[in-house]
Amino acid sequence: MEGRCRKAGAAVLVPLCRVERGKEEGGKEEEEMAEEERGKEKGGREESWNAAVLFTRRSSSLGGRHRGDVCFPGGMAEEFDGDPLRTALRETEEELGVTVREGQVWGALDPITDRTGLMIIPFLANLGPIDVASIKANPREVEEVFAVALSELCAPENRGYTRYGERGRWAYTLPVFSVRGLKIWGVTALILNSTLQLLFPETYIDSICPKTGSETG
């Protein structure tokens, strides 16, 4: 990972966090809460927490083809930001009402250029323990905030790929994640895939299918 790095058209934050098991979307059933309390009495307090990634779902009232999509907090750079990291931190605060300190940011991941030519720089950050239900997201931009355990994102049954064709041949292949009845695809899936490869270099196996002679990256 790099530091503050180069100029970008947009920047996003990849927020790692710890959430109480069962509270990834806020709220718990009574039986789940009772079971957790029984676990605490047996000394299982730490086991009730999951290492997770925090996601947002874009408001369905927004324009564009990506409304309602799962994504990371972030957006377009403004001149007054000064650098991509400040863009990512500003957008996170605007969307989620969460202030992330620079000291919580681990560094920049490799930039990604989308199909329009826009360069996006992702920053990996550790928010620590967080109560998802307490996040007051901006309803004009965010439909939903939720966390997904890293173990769930790494599970092979939740990962796949999509092939995209061009001029009668397979042009490229992208990862896809399916969790909680939602699909994580496109740039967000690419960033997530890179994050998991970085966090678990020995155990995370890329879900993208082997390339054939007709594919070009």
From TrEMBL:
Biased composition range(s): Basic and acidic residues: 36-46
Disordered: region residues: 20-46
Keywords tagged on the record: Hydrolase, Magnesium, Manganese, Metal-binding
Single annotated GO MF: metal ion binding
Cofactor list: Mn(2+); Mg(2+)
One Pfam short name: NUDIX
UniProt domain Nudix hydrolase: residue ranges: 3-170
InterPro entries in alphabetical order: CoAse (IPR045121), NUDIX_hydrolase-like_dom_sf (IPR015797), NUDIX_hydrolase_dom (IPR000086)
Protein name (database record): Nucleoside diphosphate-linked moiety X motif 8, mitochondrial
Species, as recorded: Callorhinchus milii (Ghost shark)
